[in-house]
Every structure is written in C-alpha cells, then in structure tokens.
Amino acid sequence: MATDQNKFQAIISHCKEYGFVFQSSEIYDGLSAVYDYGQNGAQLKKNIRDYWWKSMTQMHENIVGIDAAIFMHPTTWKASGHVDNFSDPMIDNKDSKKRYRVDHLIEGHAENLSEEAGKALLEQMDNLLKENDFAGLKKLIEDNKIACSVSKTVNWTDVRQFNLMFSTQLGSVTDEASEIYLRPETAQGIFVNFLNVQKTGRMKIPFGIAQTGKAFRNEIVARQFIFRMREFEQMEMQFFIRPGTQKEWYAYWKEERLKWHLSLGVSPESYRYHDHVKLAHYADAAVDIEYEFPIGFKEVEGIHSRTDFDLKSHQEYSKKKIQYFDTEINQNYIPYVIETSIGLDRMFLLTICAAYEEQDLTKDGKEDSRVVLKFPAKLAPVQLAIFPLTKKDGLPEIAKELMDSCKSAFYCFYEEKDAIGRRYRRQDAIGTPFCVTIDHQTKEDGTVTIRYRDNMEQERIPMDKVKELVLNKINE
Ligand code: GAP
C-alpha cells in the first residue's frame, strides 16, 4: 500500500490516466501551476460547484447568486486594498536565484524538526509576520540555517514584498490608465454590486450574495498539483449583517460550512479549524477549515469577518453612498460582512483524496486489486453505467432503452466492449457508484443485475426500478 507521499503521487497519476486533470498546454511541456480538467474532471468539478450553489442559494431563502465579470474597474483593487496589501514576503537565494515565500520556507524547515522545536519556530515566525518585521524574518532564517533546496546554501537576499495580482492592458493604448487586473478574488464583484442586488432583489439584512468564478494569483511557490494554482476557481458568499452582530454570524457560518463538508460523508477526523494569527488587511477574525490531505492538513476554505472594510472603502473611492436603511431599528448604516470562501479546485482535490482507495482483492491465491474512487453518488462524474452482457441477441437495444429513460435525470455511460469484470474495474476507477448489466434473463423477466461500487455486491432488481434507485442515492 502506498505511503502518504506516494499516495499523493498515485492520485496525481490517476487524475491524468482517467481524464480528470491534465497539465495545461502539455504538448508544449506545460505551464507551471496551470491545469486543465478532462472529461471526468470537468463533470466532477461541475457537480461540486452545483452542490455548493444549491446549498448556498436554493437552500437559503436569503442568499442569491450573481455572476460578475473577471475584469473590473482598476480602482476596485485600490479600494479593496489589493494594490497596496496583496503581497507576500519573499526571499531569494543569491546562489540558485530561486525565490521562496518566507512562510513556506520556514514551514518546510519546521516539518523536519521535532514537534516541540517546529512549534516554537512557527510561533516565532507568526509573531514576526504579525509585526511585518522583515529583518527579523531574515535573521530567523539565517539563525536556523534554513538552506535553499537547490543550492543548499544560506546566502539569502533581504525579505521583500511581492504583489500577487496579474495585470494586463485594456484597449490598444499602452499607458498606465488602461492597466487592469485579473481579479485575485471573486468577492469584490459582490461588493461593487451590493446596492444593485439589495435594491432590485428587495433584500433585507441579514442576506447573502453568492458567486462562483475564476480568480488569478501570481503565486511564487506554486506546487502540490492543483492545491496552489495561478488560475483557479472560487466559490464565495458575502453575508451582509447589522454592525455589532458579527461575532454570532461568524460562529454561525463557521459551523454551517463545516456541516456542508461533513454532508459529503468525509470523516470528521479529517477536518480541523485553524484560527488565523496574521489577519488579512480586511478581517477582524478569520478561520480556515483544513482537511488532512496525504501531504498534511491544509486550508480548503476560509471564513472571514470582513467588518465594513470593503463597502466603506468602495463608498470612499466611488463617492457613491453605499448604505442600508434598516427599518427595524430606523437606522442607516454600512453593513458588516461575514465571508465564506472555498477554492473549487481544492475541494476537487479533497474529493478525490477522500475517495481514492487502492484495494488488494487477492483471494484463494489468485492475485487481484483495484483502484476505486468512492465519490458520493451526487458528485460522481458518471452515476450509472449500463452494460449489455453481449453485443447481440437484442441486449444492446434493451440497454439503450434503459439509457434513454435515465439520461435526462443523471449521467449515464454505455459500454458493450470487453468482459464485464474489466468494465466494472474501469468504472471503479472513475468512481461510478452503480453498474447495471442486461443479460438474457432480462428478456425473460425484465430484471437486471445491479452492482454496487463500494462493496462490489450484486443483486437482481426489476429494470424499471433502476432509475428510482439511482435518483434516491443521488438525492440522499
Ligand atoms: N475572498 C477571500 C479570499 O480570497 P483566500 O483565503 O485568499 O480568501 C480563499 O482564498 C480560498 O481560495 C482558499 O481557502 C483556497 O481554497 C482558495 N485558493 C486561494 N489561493 C489559491 C490558489 N493559488 N490555488 C487554488 N486555490 C486557492
């Protein structure tokens, strides 16, 4: 059985082999930290996105969804603080010329120390980061003799800030006025539309606006597959509340979002909360929901109490009044905001890691094994596979009939090639929860064999019950 690091590598290979994730522009040797989703990956990603969207909007009467543009007026990013503050402290090794994010460099070193020493080092780092003490951070790296992984030397530059936003030019005139950014978070598209949605939707506080979409960050240390990408997708929700109620709503969303994760059947021990020590420029409290990937506990989602920072700042920069009249207390105010922000690609990686199993099925000296992805039925890229036992005797026609009756309700896959056992294995590898085989008995009594992915058990059921069975599992 694979070790954790090996397991991560095995998952990456599996993602490629079975059409989940490909390196972007692979025929040109790829583009660092940019990935494409293949036929199974795109569907899995869409199913995760749809589940989030439904949970946030359809299941909450006071949350609506929007779809704002990636390009926004450049002043947006001045107002949001991203032009001045969206940067990470970096350090370069003078010998290898390799650039590191300071926290990643120190964290990497801490992982190789004893638990106690590692904890002490991270505590020192957190304090220095909090104080923006760059000279102190450099000294910490030097004192601990933290070396570059390429040159193996400790010959470091000073620590400097590096802005993570990508910029481009709008229109054909290349002067500074036309410089715009690719959004580094989707949240600002929600803030600048606060009044539009509140007024046209006659929304009453507390209410939320949700959105999914691409975000772009020029990550310096982009590694670990789709965990840290330069182009990725976020699923964010800004919840607008009365000032003074932020503590209770923060606690509410912290719990509510963990419940959402657990609703997908992943064991609670695989999750933990991590409170932020160094808060982003907009937050007065922040917590990460972390998942235990094969590479360790890592952030999947953030819940941030963003105060009235964004709306207030957009009011100041746009010179447009962005306020809400609360009829219950007869007062005008700028709402406070609790944000929930989850990376879709990270949720995708989590879903694959939680589902991936290598099983040894050797029995009576006969070697056998399988790789199975135990996705929840609602997320599986294919939900039902339909196999005629043979290509003749009218079996394909019956199988196609079943396919036609089911395909508008969920994703079906039809295959008539190879032995049934091999067809099952291929479906296990892409996580199809149910396979149905149509054989000669079907012609006699209208029953089919349904085979369950997780325990590999099989039973005969009436063909006209298949659709209902699958639908019930998907809607569980
Ligand atoms: N609007 C708040 C915000 O963007 P964040 O913690 O910077 O907060 C939120 O990002 C989520 O977006 C993260 O929890 C993570 O899941 C995802 N994310 C951030 N940077 C990412 C990257 N480079 N690649 C993939 N996902 C990323």
TrEMBL record:
Catalysed reactions listed for this entry: tRNA(Gly) + glycine + ATP = glycyl-tRNA(Gly) + AMP + diphosphate
Keyword Cytoplasm: yes
Gene: glyQS
Protein name, UniProt field: Glycine--tRNA ligase
Domain Aminoacyl-transfer RNA synthetases class-II family profile: 113-388
NCBIfam families the record matches: glyS_dimeric (TIGR00389), PRK04173.1 (NF003211)
Keyword ATP-binding among record annotations: yes
Keywords: Aminoacyl-tRNA synthetase, ATP-binding, Cytoplasm, Ligase, Nucleotide-binding, Protein biosynthesis
Alphabetical GO biological process terms: diadenosine tetraphosphate biosynthetic process; glycyl-tRNA aminoacylation
Binding residues annotated for ATP, in chain numbering: 217-219, 227-232, 299-300, 343-346
Subunit annotation: Homodimer.
Function as written in the Swiss-Prot or TrEMBL entry: Catalyzes the attachment of glycine to tRNA(Gly).
Organism: Chitinophaga pinensis
E.C. number(s) listed in UniProt: 6.1.1.14
PROSITE patterns per the UniProt record, alphabetical: AA_TRNA_LIGASE_II
Entry binding sites for substrate: R101, E185, F232, E233, Q234, M235, E236, E339, T340, S341, I342, G343
Database matches in InterPro entries: aa-tRNA-synt_IIb, aa-tRNA-synth_II, aa-tRNA-synth_II/BPL/LPL, Anticodon-bd, Anticodon-bd_dom_sf, Gly-tRNA_synthase/POLG2, Gly_tRNA_ligase_bac, GlyRS-like_core
